[in-house]
Amino acid sequence: xxxxxxxxxxxxxxxxxxxxxxxxxxxxNGEFAFTVDVTGLQSLYKTYYETLPLCTMSTWGWHxxxxxxxxYAYTLNDLVMTEFxxxxxxxxxxxxxxxxxxxxxxxxxxxxxxxxxxxxGFYYKGEELPPERLSNIHQELKLYEGELVSDFSLCGTxxxxxxxxxxxxxxxxxxxxSELLKEGSLTIGLDFPYGSPGISGSDWEEKxxxxxxxxxxxxxxxxxxxxxxxxxxxxxxxxxxAIEVTVAQHKFRIESHKNTxxxxxxxxxKPFAFNEPEKQEKTVALIKKRTNAFFRSFWENGxxxxxxxxxxxxxxxxxxxxILSMYLMTVNSCGPTPPQETGLTCNSWYGKMxxxxxxxxxxxxxxxxxxxxxxRSLPWFLDHREEARENAARNQYKGCRWPKMISNAGIDxxxxxxxxxxxxxxxxxxxxxxxxxxxxxxxxLEKYWSLVEESAEFMVDFVVWxxxxxxxDLVAPIIPAQECHHPDITxxxxxxxxxxxxxxxxxxxxxxxLHKNYNRxxxxxxxxxxxxxxxxxxxxxxENCPNTFTDYNRDHPSMxxxxxxxxxxxxxxxxxxxxxDKVLECWKYESLWGWDFAVMAMTATRLHKPELAIDxxxxxxxxxxxxxxxxxxxxxxKDLPLYLPGNxxxxxxxxxxxxxxxGCEEEMPGIPKxxxxxxxxxxxxxxx
Length: 688
Known about the structure:
Helix content: 25-40%
């Protein structure tokens, strides 16, 4: 029987009947997102601010605060690098903050930063809405349609609001019904902040450091330009009815004088001017129609899984997390650039992209037959090869080295940890292979071969030959995915060694598909990577870490990813099973991150322990919390009110558990066979 997708998806529509500052709802298109409170806009900005700021964000909206009146920016050439010994030669990284160079380090770390484009909210009699005057709240995010419907009473008068983000442009469509509009008590305000690296992306105090200029206006449209230092962006307000817009410094107020208001608010990185037919394209009705069509196609044509007919009461919650994660990843993370950890909802780490999280954000898409969502961001890597080459060449390495923490410029960022991480290097190769498995196009192989090849060139140049073991090592200075290890003594981290081996095997496969000549060192390194370190019968974090399970039993148990995430024939299953059991026994659960649960569940699945896989996915622990919006909140961290890698990793684990993996003959290997689980799925691909 075909799954009724409308029924399945709509069953999990988030519904709020009170102010919930942990679960504001986000609508968006992957390049632009608008996060709102229970009024359907950002009316209660101050109420939500301390828990999860309400932002309007884009992939292109960045701000750089000048160093001073005399100097605009620093570069890495101005930074005093940290020197390390690497196999007998000196390498330099932007790691430590050196005395006398603090200003350069701090400036580079937070600039550029992602910008909150505007706060868009209701005002009542010219003042901010008092939250205590709201009643009869009922808000529903209609997932299948991609639109938000909000009903509430303000001072006893009913208000009905429909909010939607255009699937094809960075435009918000707003429909409002209320008698308060007609009497002039209810208006929509646009407020514009200066840029900030903080979680809100907003500085509301520096009013004289930015400008808001009205460029064009009529009784139905207003086009403006925002200028912040050397950065700028544009916006427009469009309505089918005559509206009145009052303009003050960094403030617009929109009035209707009817009991309904339809208004479209557009943002753009580039200037624009509309003729009349183009303005008609910005009607709320057409925006809604395009968005409905996009989400209907998304839900009907991609993968889906139904669990809620199971006897196990936990199945409904797991199904909810899956459906909401699919929505959240699509609107937050699947745009033209790699996303930040909090997507387009609010800032984390100054809004910068973390390439080691790119896997968790986007690798799920091909497995759910949404390869097109991953392929939106792949051209970004083609456009930033030169920066990746420079990053490698800075320490005399060949090829492209992909950093962890970057802004839109693609340049490595100073950090106590980020410059020495390497587990992001194979991600692109792995994800390109996942994408190829779905489209099987020679054109695709040709387009991205240079990225695969140059990424591999760095990988084989980075390893060091060990004359004693006759194998290649990953040597200091490196920091593994489990970031608590000291870079000077880390050697052959388990996950990274296996990832190196597997990714290079993919590179050889691509070369053979294309009948390309390739560097034979790819083969030599792939076949002679170091043995995965086993100490006292357990896989260790790295070769020099005999105290993995006593002193380092915190943060990511990343040694499990060498088997759970990656297909391989080098792992000894007996030792990996003991390692998983040891992690579950002794690990400090409060230190885990959202994606660790998916990795552990994938490991349990490959070890033929489906009951354990389900138990792990639904562990009741602070970093595995999924709030009403579906966001994976990291409860113990105020700076991470949402953590999209947790959502994306869940979507990576589910195909392995239900559709299986290459070489697996068991049906639904991650689902218990005791009769308590009933699972139906469609269009989900087999994992590698």
